[in-house]
Amino acid sequence: MTNINDIARLAGVSVSTVSRVLNNYKYVASNKRESVLKVIEEMNYTPNKNAIDLIRGETRTIGVIIPYNNNPSFDQLLNGILTKALEDDFLITVLPSKYSKEKEMEYLEKLKSKLFDGIIITSRANDWETIIPYSNYGSIVSCEYTEHTEIGCSYIDRYSSFLNAFQLLKNKGHRAAAFTTARLESNSTKQMLDAYNQIFGELPPGYHISDCQCLEDGYEAAKQFLQLPERPTAIYANGDEVAGGMYLYAKSQQMKVPADLVIIGQENQPVGIGLGLTTVDHQLTKVGEQACSLVIKKSRKKVKIPYRILERDSV
Amino acid sequence: MTNINDIARLAGVSVSTVSRVLNNYKYVASNKRESVLKVIEEMNYTPNKNAIDLIRGETRTIGVIIPYNNNPSFDQLLNGILTKALEDDFLITVLPSKYSKEKEMEYLEKLKSKLFDGIIITSRANDWETIIPYSNYGSIVSCEYTEHTEIGCSYIDRYSSFLNAFQLLKNKGHRAAAFTTARLESNSTKQMLDAYNQIFGELPPGYHISDCQCLEDGYEAAKQFLQLPERPTAIYANGDEVAGGMYLYAKSQQMKVPADLVIIGQENQPVGIGLGLTTVDHQLTKVGEQACSLVIKKSRKKVKIPYRILERDSV
DNA sequence: CCTTGACTTGAAATGCATTTCATAAATTAG
DNA sequence: CTAATTTATGAAATGCATTTCAAGTCAAGG
User: Fold this and answer.
1) Does any CB of chain B come closer than 8 Å to the CB of residue A184?
2) Which intervals hold domain HTH lacI-type (chains A, B) (predicted)?
3) Which are the contacts of B294, defined by CB distance < 8 A and separation ≥ 6?
4) Cα–Cα dist B79/B51, whole Å
5) What are the start and end residues of each CATH 3.40.50.2300 domain in chain A?
6) Residues carrying CATH 1.10.260.40, chain A
7) Using the 8-state DSSP alphabet, how is residue A82 labeled?
């Protein structure tokens, strides 16, 4: 491979001058600039990006930790992040964690090793205490709210959105509701339980199923809910695909939505539009865009993204 | 920042020895190894990955060119790629192109500049002639078939799948079918037109609408199709989300699927499962996995991934 | 005519870790 | 008890481009 020294030699100038040409520095005699460019062209030379990143100490690359790479919510976040990164000429490296603490640390180590200028954590397995020291090595932005001042946040007030959704159900005359969540130990699940308690009081046994991700999970969850002795009249699903599965199960039992069963979904996904499901749209694409914007600006601001409830025909 | 020289000095050894410890080289006296590790611990040292990549000449990072980052088909491909990359400890950088030739070249230049060990092209804007020279700088794998021996391929025989889908419709008694595609100038569209011609002969005017991506596009397409003087009895949609939109439009017109209108979708997406749409599943996740596997192995093989038709209730 | 500021250029230092080469000591084999 | 390995270590070269520093030229201003 030809490098900057070869170019300098062949063009009869110093490497400094070649570097100046490469970086469009003003003060280079035009004849020298010409001949350098000519040699670059002839030798088909491209500067080595690793050398540049090494000396500049930055890579214009952002790492994005996502637990699952086949999950529509994280796809929405990633979509927003990519859009913003493209605008500002940053690269995005996707870091799937499967909620493994070790994998997560491995990725944070890569921030420390100068591979990324910053990291966006869409969801995490480790404690903040473990993560925060790494904010010394690059900007870290979270898609979940945290008090810690070292971490920028682009977040949703989920507690409030859950409160609103449950209130909507209560207003329609339901005295309880079943619901699904993703990970049992997540912050989001905690907020869900709190919001439920706030609106409906005690949760009837069997009214909460966790680890739901996809349409099939929703189908199974609905089956379980509807086999309970006190079957729920309303269900909140943590995603429209999950809600879609519930809808299908209800249909298979000759139940009508919303007459026999009310379903409310989340994230405004295509299947929800298709089935006319009412949904709580947390606008994850916007959350992603904002997160990316914060990490690029090395900002530690806390930015709340508004959610909205899209009422369709399932409530 | 502390570097390998600092560690060497503080541990009273040479940088070579520190490097040996770092890379678990066998022949290091255990007492020296201990003291090096101790200093590394104390100084909270992490080697600079850019320096390592520079000298090793490889990054264990693969770039993935995708035209759209909010498209379910490309999400499926990416999903497969990420799964395989995680297994083999490679990183994935997502490179959105929007089918811009310039952006694409920019990304290929990054391969040349040693930022990536290889590139996966899920779909392209440039000619192969323009792309191929870059295969000298790293392995390039395409998710579309090409004769060029420089390029590895993990591909689907779309012509065959379209042939099969149209034959299915013909067998059910349809004498023509309308269909949607993504980009008009894509290879896939060409194959579609050829397959149509093979099965049904000449395409009735207005029976092909391009640039369809999402549910809303499908809704609009169905509207246009069903307003034609000779309205089609069957439609092939380039994606289940598009098909979902068609389904919705048909419903809005009090039409029954499949009695009044037959719809066949593509890629086995959640909305299709939800609506019970028959679909041509090209198994894009597998295509992605295979593509990633090829690029990691620097293989130029041509691997055909089998498709399958999932018959549900819309045909 | 001298000073000042705008140009122009190259040598050398810098960023950081790996790897080759040379050397030497300690074992093992014959 | 040699010869051949194995073990152990450091100096120096290597990968590559940027940036600072020093120094020189040239033209304009006073």
Assistant:
1) no
2) 2-56
3) B139, B141, B152, B153, B154, B300, B301, B303
4) 30
5) 59-157+285-307, 158-282
6) 4-47
7) H
CATH number of the domain located at residue range(s) B58-156+285-307 in this protein: 3.40.50.2300
CA of B3: nearest nucleotide by C1' is C16
What are the chain B neighbours of A91 within 8 Å (beta carbons)? 93, 95
Calculate the CA B121 to chain-centre distance. Answer: 7
- Per the structure, the residue whose CA is closest to nucleotide D14 at C1' is B55
| Chain B residues lying within 8 Å of A77, measured CB to CB | none
Interface contact A201, partner B, CB < 8 A: no
Q: Which structure tokens are listed for B41?
A: 């611990």
Report whether A63 contacts A49 (CB < 8 A).
Answer: no
Residue intervals in chain B for CATH 3.40.50.2300: 58-156+285-307, 158-282
Please give, rounded to a whole number of angstroms, the shortest distance from the CA of A63 to a CA of chain B.
9
| Nearest residue to A213 (alpha-carbon basis) of A56, A59, A31, A74 | A74
Tell me whether B61 touches chain A (CB under 8 Å).
yes
Q: Which of B62, B273, B286 to mutate to test the interface with A (most CBs of A within 10 A)?
A: B273
For residue B244, the tally of other CB atoms under 10 A from its CB is 29
Per-residue pLDDT of chain B (315 residues; tens, 9 = 90+): 899 999 999 999 999 999 999 999 999 999 999 999 999 999 999 999 999 999 999 999 999 999 998 899 999 999 999 999 999 999 999 999 999 999 999 999 999 999 999 999 999 999 999 999 999 999 999 999 999 999 999 999 999 999 999 999 999 999 999 999 999 999 999 999 999 999 999 999 999 999 999 888 999 999 999 999 999 999 999 999 999 999 989 998 999 999 999 999 999 998 899 889 999 999 999 999 999 999 999 999 999 999 999 999 999
DSSP states of B9-72: HHHTS-HHHHHHHHTT-S-S-HHHHHHHHHHHHHHT----HHHHHHHHT--SEEEEEES-SS-H
| B158-282 homologous superfamily | Response regulator (3.40.50.2300)
B195 neighbors B169 (Cβ within 8 angstroms): no
Distance A30 CA to D24 C1' (A): 18
Tell me the nearest-neighbour CA distance from A74 into chain B, angstroms.
11
Q: Span A4-47: which CATH code?
A: 1.10.260.40
